[in-house]
Each structure stands twice: as C-alpha cells, then as structure tokens.
Amino acid sequence: SQSEEAEGLCYFVGCTTSMDIRAQELARSFARILKYGRVPFGTLGKREPCCGDIARRVGEDGLFEKQMEDCIELFRCYGIRDVVTSSPHCFHTFRNEYPAFQALKPPEEQVEFRVRHYTQLLRELVAAGSLKLEKPLNIKVTYHDPCYLGRHNQIYDVPREVITAIPGVQMVEMAHNKADSLCCGGGGDRIWQEDLDADVKMSEIRIREAEDTGAEILITACPLCLIMLEDARKTTGLEDSLRVMDLNELVAMVMGLDGGGEQE
Predict the structure, then answer these.
(1) pLDDT digit string (tens) for 155-166?
(2) Which segments in the chain show pLDDT lower than 50?
(3) In which region does residue 185 sit, left (phi positive, over 0), alpha (psi from -120 to 50) or beta (all else)?
(4) Biggest CA-to-CA distance, the chain
(5) What totals of helices (H) and strands (E) does the chain contain, helices first?
(6) Dist CA 102 CA 107 (whole Å)
(7) What is the Cα–Cα distance from 148 to 40, expressed in whole angstroms?
(8) Which of 59, 85, 158, 205 pairs with 146 at a CA distance of 20 to 30 A?
(9) Domains assigned to the chain
C-alpha cells in the first residue's frame, strides 16, 4: 500500500534485458546471485514500464515525463524505496534525470528512492563476504566501460574491483579505457539503427582492441554493450578466441551458479 514501505530490493530489469534473448542471461545470473547472497528482492514483472531513457535521449520530453510518472506511480503504489538496475541507462535516468522533474512537484507528491547499478551491489556483497569468489579461474580478462556507467556517472573502479576479487584472474586494460573508453556503438538509440555508411562498426573497432590485449574474456556491465560486442565478435571471426560476458555471468560462473543451480 502507499503507506507501507516494501521489504527488500526492487530489481528493475529494464526493456532490453527483458526482451533480448542474449541479455536475458544477465538477469538470470543476477537473480541467482541475489538468491545465493540471501538478498530479498522482487521485480515488477509485466507491470514494469520503460524508465524513459530512450525518449529522453531523443528529445521526446513529453513521452519521457509520462514514462517517468508511470514508474514513480508504481514505486509509490508498492512502497519501493530501494532500486537496482541491469542497465547503466536506467541507472543514469533514475539517478540524474528523475530528481530534476521530481523537484518541481510539491513535497507530498515526491517519491524518493535509492538507486544502484548492479555492479555496486555486487561489490557490496563481495566486501561483506556474502558472495564467495573462491574458485580460481586462471584466465586473462579485459573490461569494457559502458558510457553511461563510466563517463556519465564516473563508476570505473567498482566493476574492476569485483573482477580482481576472483582468484587467478589477470586483468588487462584495452588501449582506450575508463574516461577514454570507446562506445560500443549502441548508445543514443544506435543499437536499432542500420549503419550510416560506416566502413567499420564501432563495435568491431572495440572488439579488436579487446583482441589486442590477449584476453580470453571481454567483460562488460551493460545489456546494450553485451549485445553489440557479442555481435561484433561474430562478424570479426573471433568466436573461437574471445568470449563476451556480462559481469553477472562471470560471477555466477565462478560461484557455480551459471547452470541454474544454487549453492547453500
């Protein structure tokens, strides 16, 4: 009810993670991790609306405000005050776009909630000892910084700290990393567009940088980046030499949760 605060975490899955077959494994892995860590959580299921990110990016402010109001009303209705997102785009929109619009409302109509990207929660769980990253992998990996996690929100070290907490992992950086990272090519609605007379795709340039590091796995923390880089891996013929994974998938693999089983 509106007068009661929901217990536990609201996992805001997001449009892309919900609908794209490749990105869905991100959500499955994260859910298994939360269950393992005994983190109370729930989702909005089919009632989850779009956060409004794409509408905001393309200047459809009227549509954005409607989608924002849909989200806010659900959060109010269910007493949601703690949100974690799959997508850096949802995270950025909740964190940086909603407050300005909320501030225009009377105080009694405003809905305050905490929002984190899933990488932040993973780091908290690792630091608290709730996640046991004990299985040594003995592999070389590199990490791709999503634009809306890195440059837009300055979250560079958090995912790297989770990766380097895994025994045996050798972390190597690409030529462009952190604030100088390259876009995967899927931002700003480009993931749904045909290439605009480009001889080389941005995603292919990025996957080649990953190849140059000698890494066996390219890790990212965004469903759009995951999709774009996975496709680039195939179009550049790197399917046998380089694997693309979301950070949730890597953590789930280390913990033996990637097959759907749950450890006690």
Answers:
(1) 999 999 999 999
(2) 1-3, 191-192, 260-264
(3) left
(4) 57
(5) 11, 8
(6) 9
(7) 27
(8) 59
(9) 9-122 (no CATH), 131-254 (3.40.50)
